[in-house]
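Morning run. Coffee first, then this:
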Amino acid sequence: MQYGELVTKVAEVTGVEEKAIRAVFTATGAVADLALKGGDDIHIPPLGKFKIMTRQARPGHNPRTGEKITIAASQTIKFSASKQFREGVN
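And here it is:
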């Protein structure tokens, strides 16, 4: 489902205008971004948990040349679905 479809469906279910739903999604994204950058996990009970994970530097290779390289350490966001959400999908 694309963003526009999600906004429309949430508006239909809640009876709230699409413009307000978009504003809430935008604000939620901004707050989540700040929280994750600050080292906080984000728990959304019906959906799950978002947290920052650190990937260690590791060896790799350039697929074009075969040259050995070191892939730098990086951070990524991990999502763990709640039990309720997982069970709803199965």
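Residues 1-40 form one domain. Good start to the day.
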